[in-house]
Amino acid sequence: AQRVAIKARSKSRNRSASKTRNHSVSRICAEDFEFGETLGEGSYSEVKRATHRGSGQQYAIKILDKGHLKRKQKLPVALAEKNTLVKLGAGHPGIVHLHWTFQDEWSL
């Protein structure tokens, strides 16, 4: 599976979702989710609706094409986006909260 950055679907912060992240000893991966419809697409990414298999919580998962990012030298842009979400997303009402990131051979 090729899934990476996971962002909460709802506007409100979900305490149980962050408890799951902090409490979990194992790493989260694409197999932990059931993927649904595509919510949006960009030049090197797409966003899919996904349901966490353990909790039933819905998320929007942004899937970045690692090959495209490397070819177009956009890896620093993706890293800057992630770092911005980490720094600002947890406390800013206008920025989506980043719950997890993960990668595989093809995607960030």
Q: Care to describe what's here?
A:
With 108 residues, the protein is of the alpha+beta class. The protein has one domain (5-100): Phosphorylase Kinase, domain 1, CATH 3.30.200. Helices cover 27% and strands 29% of the residues. It is built from three helices and five strands; from the N terminus they run E-H-E-E-E-H-H-E. A five-stranded antiparallel β-sheet has the order 2-3-4-1-5, sandwiched between helices. The longest helix is centred in the last third of the chain and has 14 residues, at 75-88. It is globular and about 35 Å long. Residues 8-24 have low confidence and may be disordered.
Helices, by number, come to 3
CATH architecture: 2-Layer Sandwich
Oligomer: single chain
**How does the overall form come out from the CA principal axes?**
globular
Task: Give the amount of beta strand, in percent.
Answer: 25-35%
Listing every helix as H and every strand as E from the N terminus to the C terminus, the arrangement reads EHEEEHHE
The overall pLDDT average reads 80
Largest sheet: spatial strand order: 2-3-4-1-5
What's the domain count? 1
| CATH topology description | Phosphorylase Kinase, domain 1
Query: In terms of per-residue confidence, which ranges show pLDDT below 50 for 5 or more consecutive residues?
Result: 8-24
Q: What is the total tally of β strands?
A: 5
* CATH level-four homologous superfamily name: Phosphorylase Kinase, domain 1
Largest sheet: 5 strands, antiparallel
Measured between the Cα atoms of the first and last residue, the distance is: 11 Å
